[in-house]
Amino acid sequence: MQSRRSLRLAAGALVLAVPLLGSCGFDKATDRVYTPAATTNDRDGDVDVLGAGIVSAQPGSGTFIASLSNNLVDKDFTLTGVAGAGDWTDLKFEPSELSVDVPARGFVNLVDEDPITVTGDLTPGQFAELTLTFDSGDTVTMRVPVLYACDTYAGLDASASEASGSASASATESASPTESSSPSATASATASATPAAPYDCVAVGEG
Q1: What CATH number is given for 40-153 in this structure?
Q2: Domain residue limits, the chain
Q3: Model-level pTM?
Q4: Quick one: pLDDT band at residue 49, thresholds 50, 70, 90?
């Protein structure tokens, strides 16, 4: 009698354990790679594009940031271009042609390279669709967020300094007297050369 009771208890314990064992699959959410951040990742190709976004210090321009991780042990890649895709083809990137080497099993942070600036109808909070092109012919198309150049991203928008320098040069040229210039034309040129006011990070944080 005792052995039968023990057998029933053991069988019952096994039945209760089956759902628990079944829940221990290999594709649980906790097993997947996840990096909490405002930026986005793409791991579908031979080169992972990590932490991608456009950092914007003022309306109408920004700087593309991302890290590139080469998954192959026997092949180098070179990032040759970044361009807008889908509804974002009007975005203009400088330089338009790139040469950023990503060696085999290498990792490159674009923040450490020459900046890739972008101009267009950009507003923080949007998601812009971009295509990255490599020398192999491989492309990565992904949606990246437009971010305020505040807090973690402060100082990463190189387009802010470029816009300021360009505006200063334009203003200086327009201020130089010429035979054909008039006060109204000079004032108009100076106004058009004025860069957009930078975002107020304090106001953005409060919002």
Answers
A1: 2.60.40.1890
A2: 40-153, 159-197
A3: 0.71
A4: very high
